[in-house]
Amino acid sequence: MCGPKFCSMKITQAASMKARAATMIAISEAVAAWGATLAAAAKRLGLTQPRLNDLLRGRINKFSLDTLIDLATRAGLSVRVEIARKAA
Fold this sequence. Notes:
By secondary structure, this protein is an all-alpha fold. It has a single domain (about 5-75), classed as lambda repressor-like DNA-binding domains (434 Repressor (Amino-terminal Domain)), CATH 1.10.260.40. Helices cover about 65% and strands about 0% of the residues. It has four helices and no strands. The longest helix has about 30 residues, at about 5-35.
């Protein structure tokens, strides 16, 4: 059993991980739809090729949510954050 502070941190980390994963998938799909080379896609996103490779391989711990939102915008995606209360 975990204490309230530790459990709260795990829930927060899980929410962040879920948001980052969804954003990474959307960016990866956008890049794939371009049909561009890795070099061209990296340039379009303002990344190095190794950094884009990290994103496309799903290396989630290398990207903050802020960075992913910026990249999604550069990829031409519309980003919306929705906050709602949990059902009781």
